[in-house]
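Q: I have 443 residues here and want to know how they pack in 3D. Can you give me a structure?
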Amino acid sequence: MSKPLITVILPSLNVKKYIRECMDSVIGQSFRELEILCIDAGSTDGTLEILEEYALSDQRIRIIHSEVKSYGKQINMGFELAEGKYVAIVETDDYIDLSMYEKLYAIAEENQLDFVKADFRGFRVLRSGTVIYDEGRVWGDREVYGKILSVIEFPKLYLRDVNIWKGIYRRDFLIKNAIKLNETSGAAFQDIGFCLLLLLHAKRGMYVDDLFYYYRRDNEDSSSNKPYGLRFAYQEFRKLLDDPVTGKNVELFYHYLYIRMIHVFMGEYEKLLRYGGKPGEEFREMIGWFQEKLGVEIGRGKITEKDIGKAVWDELCLLIGNEDAYAERRLDAKRRRDEEEQKLLNKIGRDRVVVFGCGYRGRDALLFCDRYEIETAAFCDNDISRWGDEFYGYRICAPAELLESYSDAKILISTNKYGQAVREQLEEMGICGERIAVLPSGS
């Protein structure tokens, strides 16, 4: 076999349910000059046996065993062992478009890039088998696409480019600049340092206006769906601050590092509240460290309201200055949401529903129904042009059909802006209030 041009690194640990879809998308790439490094951290659910099965039929696949359960360690092993000019990462519960590496390689070579990244789309698979994709693209700044960039021209890359797996990287560039992942245990947040250091050193990066990567959001075993992420975030940011970075534009680097810290700290603190109430003693040192470091930067005037917006600023100042008050306020909000959801569930009972509204809130209503195992019969909308079409595989009906075809169903109003108007419309049609329910905000 000739020397590969791209090495694809696939870290795995107990992903039997998803590994075939992932592997098929990698070995099926139209770009054939690949080396595929499957780095397993001790799977016990049959994942390793499936990888061995693939390796028997494709000589491009190498199986490597990691003695430690560390996403960062697995990726770094791949960087060290890679033979390709470029390296790429695919998380083994995700999958990629079959043309991804052909297109990215051509762009990287034509423009002599340090890295090139595409866009991605998150997805969930409902109990019915229906796939729900995230709406829109990740990048809101359309002017970013197709240009050779560095953070000097576009410093907000530090905040917007936070994923390691949606592109390819020139391996010698990574090695020269010692860009790698933190090797703490687990699999959460170990790529923050990689992404920040990549942008610090890269002079020729590019983002392309294509959706190539499909990121799974419904894996309950994923670290992003667990309540202990604060521990990993603490390990990652502490290492970044304990190991000083030098070079040009380092002040800009640290400015955005602290802003990333704010968003990650607040997000993971919220997750602790959501899963277990006020954080216990096991998290006190970590929370105190974040509060101290961010408080110092605020006191020095290095982080201001302008950097994060008034709403986040007010919440951050309360979390740092009066954590008990912050936690109680957030828990009160959670209790109100939970009460609203329970009232809705009580009203629906065991009936099926028709969701009224086919926008992004209609998608949220579908996810809500799936979460609580409520049967969704159809969607309904006032837009006559959509009648008879489908929304995520469900038929869109006219309001008049609610009186006949779906007379046994509850009607779940998903739209916020026109919710009251829709309720009045339904009542004027003679539909009683007992059949009408409203999706709570935040659900």
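Q: Anything worth noting?
A: The chain has 15 helices and 15 strands. The mean pLDDT is 93.
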